Amino acid sequence: MEERRKSARIPFSYSDAIYGILAKADSESDSVTLPISDISDHGGRFQLDLNAEREFAVGDKLLLKAIIGTRNIRFEEPIELVIIWEKEEKSNSWLGCEVTRVTEASKTSFIDLVRAEKVFRGDWIPNRKAGGKKKTGP
Fold first, then answer.
1. How many other C-beta atoms are found inside a 10 Å radius of the C-beta of residue 20?
2. pLDDT at 127 over 90
3. Mean pLDDT, all residues of the chain
4. 15, 60 Cβ separation under 8 angstroms
5. What CATH number does the domain containing 102 carry?
6. Which end of the chain is more exposed for a tag (fewer CB within 10 A), N or C?
């Protein structure tokens, strides 16, 4: 599979209990809560229950209404995503989604969450110079 990621992804395990509240763009009233396997500035991967009825297909547009978990964020305006791939392995199934439309307020909240998770996990050091060592003190 060719690497097409636009930015680094932050992985979550099922035990991290990070969930996205999503709805199909053509039926905002019916929401579903799915575990988030990873997120980045440009999208995310959502885990599906293999035993559940298939509600989604590649090309479907979704609305990300909120993220709940370590931080709870309800977006002022839902973030529009498009499903760009679906993958199934043994006991897991995932949807890969890319952000297609987002307001500035929702984008700021989303990117703040991604950056906060990077800092929390030690994956991003704000004042780190390229090739330098991690800053450990003031």
1. 24
2. no
3. 79
4. no
5. 2.40.10.220
6. C
